[in-house]
Design goal:
Blueprint: H1 2-26, E1 30-35, H2 38-50, E2 60-65, H3 73-81, E3 87-90, H4 93-102, E4 107-112, E5 133-137, H5 143-154, E6 160-165, H6 171-183, E7 187-192, H7 199-208, E8 213-216, H8 220-224, H9 226-235, E9 240-242, E10 254-257, H10 260-275, E11 292-296, H11 297-303, H12 309-314, E12 317-319
Parallel strand pairs: 1-2, 1-3, 3-4, 4-5, 6-7, 6-8, 8-9, 9-10, 11-12
Antiparallel strand pairs: 10-11
Helix pairs in contact: 2-10, 3-4, 5-6, 7-9
């Protein structure tokens, strides 16, 4: 009888161990994302599917939207970290700063068009970040010099350009823009944008003061409000250029920059590798290798501009 009791107890213990192992095996990892818009989440989820994940089954993804406004990131990060996150995905310098302030242990994957990650102290080096953060960074503020060149080609004789920029994170971009404009003998009229409500008055002031064109520098706040920027510049007959692809919106004149949607999808590759055991500090930071020029001929016609053939021939995409 004693031996039978030992056997039953042993079976119960074995069943308990197996049940515990099954529960451990069944745990679904959690990924939290803080971004300016739902579009970022859609891109990231598409990237997860491309690497074989089924959101909601193989990975749980939570998301907080900030609309690109600086003061909303910290609260979003705090809320998401409470849920037992495995990887935190952030899509701006604001998100990186908030995440690094709140955790030194949770893996962070970043997508950032505005920061030099080494100079900002986010990573030790591009090849070996050496911390709990890695990801994709543009890290090329001088790209904005190309925006100056392109808008000048689109509007020969341009002497004054309005620049709207996010003063909280786009300082390096603005300085590079000023240098490029000065070299091209173009006067820069700046307008710092801190919240969405600043956009309309800035563009209206440019139009009233006879500014010849507009450059919108990169930030999550600008991307979220790009449709409004396009509508206002068209209404006020201001040729405009941005880093964000214009073809889906169909209203701006020119865009030149990396494919941000694909960068956000690419963040899923980092997350997948981390969930499979990769060390965050050993995953190299990536920078976009390809930049695309898009031209909107419908907007050019509405503005009364005849774009030079040399510009059209260099365009990767042309909206007829």
């Amino acid at each position: 009888m004693y031996g039978r009791r030992r056997f039953i107890v042993g079976l119960t213990a074995l069943a308990t161990v197996r049940a515990g192992a099954a529960r451990a095996k069944a745990r679904v990892p959690r990924v939290e994302m803080v971004s300016a818009s739902a579009r970022s989440l859609a891109n990231f989820l598409a990237g997860l599917r491309e690497v074989g994940h089924v959101p909601g089954q193989t990975v749980i993804v939570d998301h907080k939207i900030t609309s690109g406004e600086a003061d909303r990131y910290d609260g979003a990060v705090v809320v998401l970290l409470r849920s037992g996150v495995d990887v935190l995905v952030v899509t701006s310098p604001h998100g990186i700063t908030a995440a690094r302030r709140r955790t030194g242990t949770v893996a962070i994957v970043a997508v950032d068009l505005e920061s030099d990650p080494v100079a900002s102290g986010f990573v030790a080096s591009l090849a070996r970040p050496g911390s709990n953060l890695t990801g994709l960074f543009l890290d090329l503020p001088e790209v904005t010099g190309k925006l100056v060149q392109l808008i000048q080609e689109a509007k020969p004789g341009l002497s004054r350009v309005g620049v709207i920029w996010d003063a909280a994170i786009a300082g390096a971009q603005f300085q590079a823009t000023e240098r490029a404009a000065r070299a091209a003998a173009i006067e820069v009229r700046p307008a710092a944008i801190r919240i969405a409500a600043d956009v309309g008055p800035a563009i209206e002031t440019f139009a009233r003061d006879g500014i010849g064109a507009l450059i919108a520098l990169s930030s999550p706040l600008m991307r979220v409000n790009q449709a409004q920027i396009d509508e206002l510049t068209l209404r006020h007959r201001l040729p405009s250029i941005t880093l964000f692809d214009l073809l889906e919106r169909g209203r701006g004149l020119l865009s030149y920059g990396p494919d941000l949607d694909s960068m956000q999808r690419r963040a899923a590759v980092y997350v997948d590798r981390i969930l499979k055991g990769a060390t965050v500090g050993e995953l190299p930071v990536e920078r976009p290798a390809k930049f695309e020029l898009a031209v909107n001929l419908r907007t050019a016609k509405a503005l009364g501009l005849t774009l030079p053939q040399s510009l059209l021939l260099r365009a990767d995409r042309v909206l007829q």
